[in-house]
Amino acid sequence: MAAALAVVACDKDSNYNDRYGDKAVIPPEGKTLRVMTYNIYGARATSPSNAADLDAIAEVIRRQDPDFVTLNEVDVFTERSGKNVHQARDLAEKLGMEWHFSKAIDQSGGEYGDAVLSKYPILEKRSYSLPCAAEQPGEQRSLCVIRVEIDGKSLYVASTHLDHLQGDASRMVQAAEIRTICSTELTGDLILGGDLNAIPSSNVIATMTAFLTSAGSIEQYTFPSDEPTRKIDYIMYTPINHFGVQNCQVVSRADQQVNGVDASDHRPVVADIRFQTEDDTETSLGGDE
What we know:
single chain, Deoxyribonuclease I, Chain A, disordered N terminus, disordered C terminus
């Protein structure tokens, strides 16, 4: 397990306790998974010339030793980041992980979107397009999904990055589309991470937390990386009774700097989450002793 992180931690998920109170039943001990979400800004933040530096991003991730990483603003074969560079694939190779990339839009001769990295073998890969609102044309977004198996039980891990424009119209459409996808196609245990471009009090987050539980507290600011003033990066999960958040933190600035320079314009978020495996489920239901 990685070294302890800095900044605010939460012993239990605040949304869980707000909803169910201190007497809520926390899931039995299961497999503890470390999940990281990170908007990497195309790996361009550390260079004065805006050239991509995947080694810096890989170092920030390596320091936290996550089992899964959900990535946003990932470039694939773009002119701005390198025509021979596939950032999801190349980061996974540097970290000894498996990967899946989902395109959101075309970008400078290549593609731009979201990715998931996994220490666990990826059994299934899915990609979904998230549209913009008709009244607010912007960038089409994506939902990048993998399925793994942990101690006999399937788990979906997803990455997304909602619209960046000032109004909420497109983010609301995209949040509603994610809810539809989750209710009709990802009917199982799910952890979702990403840059939702919305603060905790927004209607967008209210829409997301109507079907997902958010890890961490509302004061865990993630953007901008030098002096964060708002929380827009999240780790969420469902169903609530199959997970228990042991720890959720925003990575300190020192831990997301390489050679004294911020590796991205966002701070990563890391959560240690208990996942109820098949054996745990049978035990909780009164299975054979």
